[in-house]
Amino acid sequence: MHWTDINLWAVLVAALLNLVIGGIWYSPVLFAKQWQSAAGLSDEQLKSFNPLKVFGLTFIFSWIISLNLAFFLASPGTDWQWGLTAGILAGLGWATMIFAVIALFEQRSWRYILIHGGYITVYFAAIGALLGGWK
User: Fold this and answer.
1) CA distance 27 to 21
2) Which InterPro entries does this one have (predicted)?
């Protein structure tokens, strides 16, 4: 694969999707209170985080994730359906499983694992479809 096989605009949008999907997933509309409780975080702790650091690093890490998946999906025959499938396989089969292993050793609850694992899988599925379809 070559850099010319990668749509860098799609990679950029896929990285931004992490912030959008995460913003919805961890909002009061979905899992904010459940996640906060499972993570053992107080309201004061949540208010004290550095948004520039957290969102800046999140975007950089998301760009790396998106670029990596884009290289896996750079084959000429890739479409959004294969991208979606590959995203689910990578998100559930790799990323969520290693996260679950770490969380088990940290003695985290299944609720914690399922909230984060669900988010990871949804994010990977979304960017897989995007990267597979936007060539």
Assistant:
1) 10
2) DUF1761
**Using alpha carbons only, what angle is made at residue 104 by residues 100 and 105, rounded to the nearest 5 degrees?**
125
d(CA 109, CA 101): 12
Q: Where are the domains of the chain?
A: 3-17+33-133
Contact 115, 27 (CB under 8 A): no
pLDDT, averaged across the chain: 95
pTM of this structure: 0.93
Residues 6+ apart with CB under 8 A from 69: 14, 86, 87, 90, 124, 127, 128, 131
Would you say 87 and 127 are in contact if contact means Cβ atoms under 8 Å apart? yes
Q: What is the pLDDT of residues 27-61, one digit of tens each?
A: 999 999 999 999 999 999 988 989 999 999 999 99
Find the distance separating the first CA and the last CA of the chain, reported in whole Å. 14
Report pLDDT for 45. 92
- pLDDT of residue 2 exceeding 80, the answer is no
Residue 127 near residue 17, CB atoms below 8 Å: yes
